[in-house]
Design a protein that fits this description.
This protein is of the alpha/beta class. Helix content is 20%, strand content 29%. Strands 7, 8, 9, 10, 11, 12, 13, 14 and 15 form a 9-stranded mixed beta sheet that branches. A 6-stranded mixed beta sheet has the order 1-2-3-4-5-6, with helices on one face.
């Protein structure tokens, strides 16, 4: 099930799947002197909580880039996530390492995160960060931060985050609120679902 909170709900596994949270990204930019908004970590954790309550998920699987960088591992960010994790000790949390995770380092042990290298095979799916094919499995990945353009004339067009599914590979939108987006070219037969407010809608219905 595709959720407007930029997540996938997998009822059989009682698992919530998200990609590219990029915790600490805003803090990384502020440490470089770039004025960016505060509160992005708190917002991400609140949105995760809302989705976990909605689905009653028992497992959260992050398809890479949980942390943004070494510079983003500030005391404030680490404390916020540690407090959130302490409130959800019954939640199994798995991180499939992405390129930013490799640079930022694994999360603190207190977060209780099970680490996995890509791809993580579960049933018919291969859960990954990078969108690379895996023989004998359908891949769900992140990394790209997919978006689609909707609307007519140039001044009426919008770029919206989307779920993009090809024949052997599906892309999840970036969960983090302080992330860019990349418009993905749609091939014949691809299915694209845009996140429009509190709805997920097929691209063709947005024209």
């Amino acid at each position: 099930m595709l959720l407007a909170g930029r997540a996938v709900w997998w009822p059989v596994e009682k698992a919530l799947l998200v990609a590219d949270i990029h915790l600490g990204k805003a803090g990384s930019f502020r440490r470089l002197g770039v004025p960016v908004p505060h509160g992005t970590t708190a917002d991400a954790l609140q949105r995760l909580d809302a989705l976990l309550r909605l689905t009653d998920a028992r497992r959260l699987i992050v398809l890479g880039d949980l942390l943004h960088s070494v510079q983003g591992r500030s005391a404030g960010t680490l404390a916020q996530v540690a407090a959130w994790r302490a409130s959800r000790t019954d939640l199994a949390l798995t991180l499939v390492r992405g390129n930013h995770d490799l640079r930022a380092g694994d999360p603190p042990p207190a977060w209780g995160v099970q680490m996995a290298d890509e791809p993580l095979r579960i049933g018919p799916l291969a859960l990954a960060h990078h969108p690379d094919p895996v023989a004998g499995a359908y891949v769900l990945a992140g990394h790209v931060h997919p978006a689609a353009v909707v609307g007519g004339r140039a001044h009426d067009r919008l770029r919206l985050p989307c779920f993009h599914f090809g024949t052997a590979l599906g892309l999840l939108p970036a969960f983090g609120g302080f992330t860019g987006m990349h418009v993905v070219r749609r091939a014949a037969g691809d299915r694209v679902y845009v996140v429009a407010g509190d709805q997920v809608r097929p691209l063709h219905s947005m024209a």
